[in-house]
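**User:**
Make up any protein.

**Assistant:**
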Amino acid sequence: MIQGRIFSRIRANTRLFSSKPGPQSSPAQPESGRKTPFDSLGYELIDSSPAEPQAIQRAVIDGLGPNSFTVSGVRVAGSVLVMPFFSTIWNVDHFERITPSSLALVKLVVPRPDILVLGTGATLLPLPPGLKEFFKDIKVNVETMDTKNASHTFNVLNQEDRNVAAALLPVSYEGNKSGK
């Protein structure tokens, strides 16, 4: 008799081993006006519905120094590689050291830039023949100009929502003055 009562209670509670939430189940709600440390991350941890999407800001070259750049409010010392939405330090300190491997990021990002603006320092320097082939192979147009004009060109094209990148040597770089 006792065994019958136990099993009848188990059979009566069909939700016991169910993975479906019961009718009384609902996510816990925070007290009204209560904030958590995680609210600024964009998700309600208790409700788990995504917050309003935030627009990603396009990169802007804000300033140039003799040996540095300011990109989207962040000062970067040395050369810089700027993509539509981010920038990174570019480990190139001389024009002669610009090689296809130093520009590998341009080849790897998706979507690939339609145009690369190459800032050659204080003066305009011609693009080496090896780089012409590299850009032709990866189907990226390249414009070479002094760094100041390259920065302005990048900003204009990027604000027009063009898929543009910039590889910029510092303004202090003057190239090979001796003509060798």
